[in-house]
């Protein structure tokens, strides 16, 4: 073993051609069938690192199929050089399935089905029509006609239990009663016969076999279709388990019928109470597989839908009250989604469970989160068209994201655009901004059922006390709502943020806050495709309002402001008339000096939008009075921040804010020439003040020089109002393309020349 480990390391690390002497390769091949599994594993790993074996050696291993194991199979599959090699391997494996127990060990037969399953996964076309027919017949035999007596020499009991007194003991159901029908994977016994093990193996690969069946070229497709039309009428009840009509079916239809009967029997067996608690997990897994197989066969043959639905509906009614069977209920929901419309069945109770109780009560189950979100992604189009509960359930679905953001963020990247509609967009935006609060609330919900949690110093969690308080309970219940439509947001958001202030550094809350900006970009990218002017205006108001109503996580607030500034500008570019429509709110925001210091990112973009789109060319409703009021509001802010030091605890205003304010004032003045003297006076004073050295509102000398230079450029332009208007507010045919930014044209040179001519030294 030590030598094999060293050899494997050498082959894995070498940069040279990975070949072994033929004698050494021949010596390694017998180790594949060694009784010591470590030797099987190491020899297979070594041979897989080398170049494919020669034809003679490969044939040797294929012919030794009676000693087949998983490691030998891995080697054969890795070194199959072509589809012909795989077809040859399949032929030998299928021939081995026809051998009886006396011909060789049954262990090799049990290895054969998993290997064939692997081949189907990677190369289904290597199976011929004869292969398909043979394997379908064998699977039918194993599924339906396995023995019903226990294997392994089980005794019937009694005082005299010698070898001669051993009698065949029938298999039992989950509740201990004797099996009254054919053997399935849920039958119980002290031991199992070889054909019973093959029954289990066949059931485990049955769904995959059915799903890939039609991907294999079939020479009898038309004939099969004709046969189906002749025999469908004869299959009218479940009594056809052993009827002659079932035996007359073609191989594909016969396998489908036997799979259908097998799954119905599994569902019937699962209704029995198990004697051993350990079998509950086994029963759950078998039900999942059974419902998935029923869904598969009903997709292939819609006539089975009416025979299947009563059984599936009864199973749902039996399990829906017990969320420990949530793993089974999701395949049932898939069945309802695929076939409910055809069978005209009411699916409302299914969707209430899937979109209601699942996220609300099992949000902290990683497996359910993965399965449910995968179900949503795979059926996104159908859910949007046929399940109205889907888009209304986003407050509930987002609980998965709030609880474990890193694990499910990729799923929500795909799902989020489908949740954005004209009716849900505003509430969805509020909900996404409150996701860190929801994350903290979910933690408090779980902790409230436990003993009071205290910090190391002995101080209890104030947020937990608030969660338990009856007067504040409504704030948390709104976050925990299961369906949209109860209002876009709540009035006391600031109170909620104060109550959850101590949660700002909880790991789950921090992770959730890091996810929100990414999803907001996706949200706005989706909303611009459906938003009309009214919705766009509403979203702008929400962004202005919520910029000051966020959970106090500094990095989170900064990132949200960056996202808001980007998409507020995008909305204004798409619909410039929004600036006139929302001029009152935008001016109120831009006229608040405190926003310069606390929201410089979004403030800068609001000021830029006002200066850029508050013009007659963007909206004919724009009046001189509106331009003047905007000018006065921005002028007051600019004068205030450049004539005094920043407030205590605040940093100096960002230079970009000041230059954007100056540019906006110059643009507005170029559209109303009466305002030009006021701008020129301010810019000249700015130049005079800065000559004296540093100023209180800008401590960096380079930033101050850049601000003064920008002021001089604007001052020079405003000396010739006609030129200023054409440069600061160019007509559309000039801005597209933007000639003044193209260094290959003369416009930049003309601007620099004009500046030098009008500038007094």
UniProtKB/TrEMBL annotation:
InterPro entries: AP5Z1, AP5Z1_ARM, TPR_AP5Z1_C, TPR_AP5Z1_N. Residues 285-399 form the AP-5 complex subunit zeta-1 ARM repeats domain. GO terms for cellular component: AP-5 adaptor complex. Pfam families: SPG48 (PF14764), TPR_AP5Z1 (PF25153), TPR_AP5Z1_C (PF25154). Residues 411-757 form the AP-5 complex subunit zeta-1 C-terminal TPR domain. This is AP-5 complex subunit zeta-1. PANTHER family: AP-5 COMPLEX SUBUNIT ZETA-1.
């Amino acid at each position: 073993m030590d030598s094999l480990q060293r050899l494997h390391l050498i082959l894995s690390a070498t940069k040279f051609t990975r070949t072994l002497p033929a004698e050494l390769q021949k010596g390694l091949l017998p180790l594949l069938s060694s009784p010591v599994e470590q030797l099987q594993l190491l020899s297979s790993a070594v041979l897989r690192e080398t170049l494919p074996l020669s034809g003679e050696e490969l044939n040797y291993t294929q012919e030794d199929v009676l000693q087949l194991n998983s490691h030998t199979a891995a080697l054969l599959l890795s070194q199959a050089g072509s589809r012909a090699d795989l077809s040859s391997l399949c032929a030998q494996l299928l021939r081995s399935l026809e051998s009886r127990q006396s011909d060789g060990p049954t262990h090799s037969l049990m290895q054969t089905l998993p290997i064939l399953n692997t081949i189907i996964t990677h190369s289904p076309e290597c199976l011929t029509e004869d292969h398909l027919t043979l394997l379908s017949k064998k699977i039918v035999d194993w599924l339906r006609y396995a023995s019903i007596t226990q294997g392994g020499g089980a005794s019937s009991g009694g005082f005299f239990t010698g070898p001669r007194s051993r009698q065949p003991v029938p298999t039992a159901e989950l509740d201990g009663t004797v099996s009254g029908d054919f053997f399935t994977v849920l039958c119980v016994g002290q031991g199992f016969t070889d054909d019973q093990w093959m029954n289990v193996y066949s059931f485990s690969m049955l769904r995959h076999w059915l799903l890939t069946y039609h991907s294999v070229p079939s020479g009898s497709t038309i004939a099969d279709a004709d046969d189906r039309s002749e025999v469908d009428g004869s299959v009218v009840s479940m009594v056809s388990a052993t009827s002659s009509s079932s035996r007359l079916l073609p191989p594909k239809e016969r396998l489908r019928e036997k799979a259908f009967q097998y799954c119905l029997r599994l569902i019937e067996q699962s209704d029995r109470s198990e004697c051993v608690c350990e079998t509950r997990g086994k029963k759950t897994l078998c039900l999942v597989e059974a419902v998935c197989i029923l869904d598969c066969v009903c997709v292939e043959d819609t006539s089975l839908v009416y025979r299947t639905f009563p059984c599936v509906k009864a199973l749902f009614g039996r399990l829906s009250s017990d969320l420990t069977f949530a793993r089974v209920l999701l395949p049932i929901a898939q069945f309802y989604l695929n076939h409910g419309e055809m069978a005209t069945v009411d699916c409302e109770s299914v969707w209430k469970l899937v979109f209601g109780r699942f996220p609300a009560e099992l949000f902290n189950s990683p497996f359910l989160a993965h399965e449910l979100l995968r179900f949503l992604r795979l059926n996104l189009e159908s859910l949007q068209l046929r399940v109205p509960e889907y888009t209304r359930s986003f407050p509930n679905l987002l609980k998965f994201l709030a609880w474990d953001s890193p694990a499910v963020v990729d799923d929500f990247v795909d799902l989020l655009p489908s949740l954005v509609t004209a009716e849900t967009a505003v509430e969805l935006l509020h909900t996404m901004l409150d996701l860190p609060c929801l994350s903290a609330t979910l933690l408090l919900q779980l902790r409230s059922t436990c003993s009071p949690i205290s910090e190391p110093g002995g101080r209890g969690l104030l947020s937990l006390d608030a969660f338990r308080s009856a007067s504040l309970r409504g704030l948390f219940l709104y976050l925990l709502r299961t369906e949209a439509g109860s209002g876009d947001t709540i009035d006391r958001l600031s109170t909620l943020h104060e109550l959850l202030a101590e949660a700002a550094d909880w790991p789950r809350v921090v992770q959730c806050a890091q996810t929100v900006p990414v999803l907001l970009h996706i949200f706005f990218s989706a909303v611009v495709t459906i938003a009309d002017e009214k919705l766009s205006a509403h979203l702008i108001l929400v962004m202005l309002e919520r910029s000051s109503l966020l959970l106090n996580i500094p990095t989170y607030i900064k990132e949200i402001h960056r996202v808001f500034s980007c998409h507020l500008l995008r909305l204004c570019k798409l619909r410039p008339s929004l600036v006139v429509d929302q001029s009152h709110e935008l001016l109120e925001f831009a006229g608040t000096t405190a926003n310069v210091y606390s929201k410089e990112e979004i403030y800068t973009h609001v000021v830029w939008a006002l200066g850029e789109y508050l013009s007659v060319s963007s909206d004919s409703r724009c009046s001189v009075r509106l331009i003047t009021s905007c000018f006065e509001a921005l002028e007051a802010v600019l004068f205030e921040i450049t004539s005094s030091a920043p407030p205590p605890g605040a940093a100096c205003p960002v230079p970009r804010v000041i230059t954007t304010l100056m540019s906006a004032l110059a643009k507005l003045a170029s559209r109303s020439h009466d305002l030009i003297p006021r701008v020129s006076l301010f810019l000249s004073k700015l130049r005079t003040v800065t000559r004296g050295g540093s100023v209180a509102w800008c401590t960096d000398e380079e930033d101050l020089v850049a601000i003064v230079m920008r002021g001089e450029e604007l001052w020079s332009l405003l000396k010739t109002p006609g030129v200023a208007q054409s440069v600061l507010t160019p007509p559309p045919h000039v801005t597209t393309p933007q000639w003044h930014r193209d260094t290959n044209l003369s416009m930049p040179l003309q601007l620099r020349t004009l500046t030098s001519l009008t500038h007094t030294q």
